[in-house]
């Protein structure tokens, strides 16, 4: 089982590594759903982490539909992420019609070199998720899709996540399940949903709040309940 933990500051990176995370998603602007962090934070996180750091690539929180000016910003930020030595990045883009923006995605992937990519929860705004998963599988650099199976918390969408996970296995992708997971119940959730990667944000923090640091007891509970 892979446990990915959101880090929003340098101290989170050290705590995630110390308390048993397998991968970090580095973001800023968490109140807006996560935005691209500063170059300084990216560089420090990569330098200090003992586990892979995947960096959010998102220029604003207005939507997942990006114009040319947005792509100019995205491409520059992607260069910073790559030059800092991050393991990968987290990105998603949609068309006005609510489908995957393949043209934009291909621009980003062309610039990304060998970086690992996670398609983020823009996926949960797509109506036909199985068709979208088949589209994403056309791009070998995309390793996983972060999803809660729709707009509800993941524990409320287990049948859909199970369907997506089964299809992802056929396509050579991974489903990274996140949104609303709790350390004490994540083991039964993962078994029921058929996932091998889970994503935690506030669920592994003191008081369940991003205002508080990562909680070692909650991290231990997550690992224990996942059998890892």
UniProtKB/TrEMBL annotation:
Superkingdom in the source lineage: Bacteria
Region (Disordered): 206-228
The UniProt record lists the keyword Cytoplasm: yes
Keyword Cytoplasm tagged: yes
Alphabetical keyword list: Cytoplasm
Transmembrane segment boundaries: none
Subcellular location field: Cytoplasm
GO cellular component annotations of the record: cytoplasm
Record field: compositional bias (Basic and acidic residues): 208-220
HAMAP family xref list: CutC
Similarity field: Belongs to the CutC family.
Protein name: PF03932 family protein CutC
Gene (name only): cutC
């Amino acid at each position: 089982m892979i446990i990915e933990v959101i880090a929003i500051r340098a101290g989170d990176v050290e705590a995630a590594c110390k308390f048993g995370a397998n991968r970090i998603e580095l973001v800023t602007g968490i109140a807006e759903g996560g935005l691209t962090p500063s170059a300084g934070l990216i560089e420090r996180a990569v330098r200090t982490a003992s586990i892979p750091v995947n960096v959010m690539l998102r220029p604003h929180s207005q939507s997942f539909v990006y114009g040319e000016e947005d792509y100019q910003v995205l491409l520059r930020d992607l260069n910073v992420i790559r030059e800092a030595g991050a393991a990968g990045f987290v990105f998603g883009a949609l068309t006005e019609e609510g489908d995957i923006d393949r043209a934009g995605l291909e621009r980003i992937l062309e610039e990304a070199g060998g970086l690992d990519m996670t398609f983020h929860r823009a996926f949960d705004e797509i109506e036909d998720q199985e068709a979208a998963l088949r589209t994403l599988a056309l791009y070998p650099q995309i390793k996983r899709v972060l999803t809660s199976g729709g707009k509800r918390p993941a524990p409320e969408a287990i049948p859909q996540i199970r369907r997506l996970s089964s299809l992802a296995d056929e396509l050579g992708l991974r489903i990274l399940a996140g949104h609303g997971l709790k350390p004490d119940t994540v083991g039964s959730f993962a078994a029921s949903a058929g996932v091998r990667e889970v994503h935690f944000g506030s669920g592994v923090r003191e008081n369940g709040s991003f205002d508080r640091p990562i909680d070692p007891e909650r991290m231990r509970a997550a690992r224990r309940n996942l059998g890892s």
